[in-house]
Design brief:
The chain has 157 residues and is an alpha+beta fold. It has eight helices and four strands. The structure holds adenosine-3',5'-cyclic-monophosphate.
Length: 157
Amino acid sequence: MKEQRTLIIIKPDALQRNLLGEIITRFERKGLKIIGLKMIQLEDALLDEHYCHHKGKPFFESLKNFMKSAPVVVMALSGLNAISAVRLIAGATKGYEADAGTIRGDFSISGQANIVHASDSPENAENEIRRFFKDNELFNYNRADFDFVYGEEERGE
Ligand code: CMP
């Protein structure tokens, strides 16, 4: 089984709009395992690192102000092909372009206030998990529904 880990940031707009439970539920119901979960207040140093590839873009300062405007919830998830599975659930970056049925398609009509961030590659996922979680904040446990979430071969039996 090609287990992957990935990082989600549930952004200030989701918190302000009372969508935290709805967002977490969507990933839980998919069968993804929550291996880390906490609320934090983002600050410049972490945002400069996390969004370094957007530095210099016209929306960079506004993006940082938005991400600092309220706490965020960071969540590490694991599962089979978790990175692409999570990105499909999140939907296209801009809410007004995202398919209905995705998180952004259902709850966002903005390019910036797009409810969640999701890692886009295995390398970025591992870097982002390390950026937001200490080792002792990540948990390894068996989900009780494992045998029904995955098929026999996927379970390695
Ligand atoms: P995210 O997936 O966190 O990655 C970068 C973020 O920048 C993106 O989601 C949006 O919140 C924001 N973003 C991307 N493009 C724009 C834009 N054109 N204007 C404002 N914000 C943007």
